[in-house]
Each structure stands twice: as C-alpha cells, then as structure tokens.
Amino acid sequence: MKEIILIDKIKKMVGGPAKGLIEGIGDDCAVLEYSADKYLLWGADMLVQGTHFTSEAGLENIGWKAVAVNISDIAAMGGVPKFITVSLGLPDKDTSRAVNGLYKGIKKICGIFGVRVVGGDLNRSEKLVIDVNIIGEVERKRLVKRSGARPGDVILVTGPIRNGKKDHLRFMPRVKESRYLVGNYSVSSMMDTSDGIGPDLNRICRASGAGARIHAACVPLSDGTPLEDALYYGESFELIFTMPPRDANELLLNTCGRGNGCFYVIGEITAPGDGVTVKMPGGRTAGLKTKGFCHLS
Amino acid sequence: MKEIILIDKIKKMVGGPAKGLIEGIGDDCAVLEYSADKYLLWGADMLVQGTHFTSEAGLENIGWKAVAVNISDIAAMGGVPKFITVSLGLPDKDTSRAVNGLYKGIKKICGIFGVRVVGGDLNRSEKLVIDVNIIGEVERKRLVKRSGARPGDVILVTGPIRNGKKDHLRFMPRVKESRYLVGNYSVSSMMDTSDGIGPDLNRICRASGAGARIHAACVPLSDGTPLEDALYYGESFELIFTMPPRDANELLLNTCGRGNGCFYVIGEITAPGDGVTVKMPGGRTAGLKTKGFCHLS
Question: How far is CA B30 from its chain centroid?
C-alpha cells in the first residue's frame, strides 16, 4: 500500500524524538506534552474534490465531513476535541457561496461537539480543497495508541459498519463511545475504521507487533453493507479497539440496551507469527489484506 | 478586499469566546492557553499550485516556502516555532518523487529552526497542494498581537523589503529578530509583510483602532524592488511592527552593526481619524490602500 510506504519514508526523513513530543507521525494524532495530567492531541485530514467527494456531494455535507474525520481522529486516541483550523482552496467562481455552504456544515458539527474554529487560510484553487487540523486533549492515563494490542486481547468495534460507498459524508464521530471506553475500561489499542477493517487492523497489528484473527460472521453490518466492503472499503468511521477479555466481558454486560452505546466483539489478537487473518462464514480462514480504500494510487 | 470580507464573515459565523482560547480568527496565529507562563501559538498556511507557485518553482523551494510562511506567522506573534503538520495533495504521477523533493526543502528549513514534523495527511489531487499547520510557544508577557499599536508609536520593519515578484520562495523567517525584539523592548503590535506594507499596515490599524503615516523615502528596498511593489505586492516576509519612540530609539542605537539584525523606522502611528497614508518621495501625501497581493479574487 503506497500510502504506508510513503508515510514510513517521511517518518524516516523527518521523524525521531524531540523535546515535548510523545508520539509523532504514525498514529491518528500526534501527542504533545501539555499539562501535568493531560496530553495535547493534534490531527490533520485533508479532503480534495475528485478524490474524496464529487461536486454533487453538497457543500454542507463536505464541510461536515471535513470536520468529522478530524474529530474521529481525536476519538481514536481517547480524547476530547477542542479547536480546529480550516484551510480552504476555493474555485474562483462564487467563493462566497462556497464559504457559506461549507461553514453551514462546519458550524453544525462544531456545535454538536463543542469545537471552535480558531484560524485557517483562504486560497484560490482550481478544485475545492479543505484541510482541517484539530487539537484536542486527553488525560495522560486515558491516552490510547495503536501500539498496545497484546495476544489474548479481544477485538471490538463501536457499531455496525456502515456502507461507506453509499453514505460517507454525514457520519457521527464516536467521541461519546470513546470517552465512555477510556473512562471505564482498559483499552489497549484503538483507531478509526477509515480505510476498512482489513487495512486498519493490519496497522494496529503492525504497531503492536501482534497478529489477529477476525470472525467474519461476527462483524456487524448496517443496511446491507457487503462484508467485502466492511473489510476493505472503509469510510465508515466506527472505532476498532482491543481490550483484555475481562474488560470486554464487563463492557458487553454493561452496555447493550443501557444507553452507553453498543459494542461488538469481532475477533482476537494473536501471536505475531500468526499473521492477520479472517475466518470466513463458510469456515475457511484467509489472510486479511492491507489493501483497501487508499487516497493515493 | 475580498479575503478580509470573507474572514470577517467566517469570524461572525463561528468566532466568539471559548474556554482556553485567548485569540481566535484574525491574527497571524490563534493563541491558546498553555501553561502558567506560556501561550500556545497555532498558525495555518496553504500553498496551491497555480495560485502561489508555478510548476517551475522546484519542489524543494515549494517545501521550503510552505514551512517558511508558517514559521513567519509564529515570528509575527513573538514566538518560537516547535512542531508542524504537513498535509499534501499530490498529482497522481510520480508521488514518490514529489514527496522526496518537497521534503528536501521541508527538512532543511526545519533543521535550521529546530522544528519537527509530527503529522499530516497524504492525498491525491490534480494540482499540488501543501497545507502546513504550525504550533509554537511564547511567554505570556512577550506575546505581540496586531491590535496594540497606539498613536505616537513608531513603525519599523526588520529589513529591506525584497522583491516578492522575483524571489518569494527561499526566504528566511525573522524568528531571531522577533525574539530579540520581544525579549528586550516593548513591541506594541507586529505582523509579517506577506501582502505588502499597504494591506498589512491597514490590518494593524484596523485591529488597533489607529491611523498611520508611512514615509515612502524611509522604506528600505532591497535589490531594486520598486516602491509600488513594497507597498502593494508583498511576499517579502519581513516583520512590520510598532513600538513607543523611546524603545525605537534604544533599538536603533543597540542594533545596526552589532549583530542583532538591522531595523528601519518607516513611519508613525497616528490618531484613528487620520486614516492610513503614505508621504510620497515628492512630498505629496496619498492614501495607503488595502489593495495588494490577494490569494482570492
């Protein structure tokens, strides 16, 4: 997957430790020193017309999604979103209408999550580009990275995997679910399923030095989402996370039907040598590939 | 100027006070609460192929500039740059070469200023887009905003205004000069001259509720830069700042030829009713307009 190779290359060129830096390139957010008991989380996600959305998507929906994917990155680390910057590349025609439309969606989702726009940039561009950066905070003890999954941990998701091909714009980031999880249980790793369970779980296993086995029959699918798309298409933005079996059991007993969200066990973390696999409904076990929705060719 | 109107509109839609927010939309950086004695500074600047650079600019130079304009935003508030995120929109062809080229420049300037890349995003895009966000810090007592200029203050610049039309890519942000200024003098307002002295000084006067008079003959020009371009073209990235006359005199006595940079007095802040004017070399006084290099039509 080209994106992973390029990110590794960039990390090699400019990564490495620095004063005040807890985690740099390679997770959903960078983690910076902040206060005695909190870290600062910093994420960045760009949407480009033609790659992430078509001109039919509707400006309000695009504004919503550009912020939602960033809030989702903060949720993936266990944090609370706080502030965003919005940098826009706007086609020459009717810039004022574009700003109005985009900000209609931005304002709505920011209102729901208590997020404030504090800056950004405005530019001319042939195609519409919207790059949002987000800052959030997380209690030090509640930070969850991709790298903490251990053999024996249970793999869960925060809800049925939606059909990202049909509806990828107007989703609700899982901040409430994330905060409930990190506030009450031991979550060993977490990320959002932006690229599909296949590539995303492979990232967790790579960062954690572990293997994993998914049970396809246990993957919850909403409104007729094909299993193949849940595994390899993405754009669903549920959280995928791991926890020790005892925590997982307690979570299931405490949640479904009790208003704390509904969580689904979909597999387990295994030894690194086992690779990342999926047990298909017929019983056959296959490799769970890293291929998936990729924003670079 | 369309950009100012749009920014005002956005500020109206999503601005307003928030917990932890000192300054939002409208200065070179947002200012956030950080520690007992420091603020966090957060800037964002996007470059788009066709608007900010042509395909002949050279990838290394584009990478350099994308970071330099952001470091300059931190310098404009009196701060020290620390971390950046880099979000790229890359044409399909030869993404690996583009990343290599851009990061050659990014790495160089980050090395000079002790700045670390901690995150970002990679995407496909028809035209090259590079959006950098920067975080820096500043001692609370050293923060300089655009809004502090007072009648009687002297207006200065950090160096000769370069010809932004000829060479706008490989400039050196004025962090050293800024830190020297805020560490030793009372600086009442500051910003970088990214759009030309005309529009930029008008912004300071608007934020400060003051007027200003520039003496054109005093504006230092490097390598044959036409006065008109210094006033209205921009892309020079010197700092323009104001200070009480006593501080200005002390600064001039302490600096030129002493390795602390070289600063130039170019005018004075006046009462708000006086407007923003320029005394031309022939003696005529003209309005100093807000027009200038604008990244939106």
Answer: 13
ipTM over the 0.90 cut-off: yes
Encode pLDDT of B83-109 as tens digits.
Answer: 999 999 999 888 999 999 999 999 999
Amino acid at the residue A58: G
The two most distant CA atoms of chain B are separated, in Å, by 57
Exposure of A44 in the CB half-sphere (CA atoms within 13 A): 29
Question: What pTM did the predictor assign?
Answer: 0.94
The terminus-to-terminus CA distance of chain B in angstroms comes to 9
Shortest Cα distance, chain A CAs vs residue B21, angstroms: 8
Using left for φ > 0, alpha for ψ between -120 and 50, and beta otherwise, residue A203 falls in alpha
Give me the sign of the Cα torsion angle A224, A226, A231, A235: negative
Using one digit for the tens of pLDDT, what is the confidence trace for A180-203? 999 999 999 999 998 899 999 999
Alpha-carbon distance of A51 to B127, in angstroms, equals 12
In Å, how far from its chain's centre is CA A87? 21
Euclidean distance between CA atoms B294 and B51, whole angstroms: 10
Nearest residue of chain B to residue A98 (CA atoms):
B6
Cross-chain Cβ contact B90/A29 below 8 Å: no
Q: Tokens at residue B123, please?
A: 């995407």
Which of the given ranges, A9-13, A194-198, B115-119, B195-199, has the highest pLDDT on average? B115-119
Q: Choosing among B131, B134, B294, B297, which should be mutated to test the A contact, i.e. which has the most A CBs within 10 A?
A: B131
The DSSP output letter for B2 is H
Residue partners of B175: CB distance under 8 A and separation at least 6 = B71, B74, B75, B80, B81, B113
d(CA A156, CA A239): 8
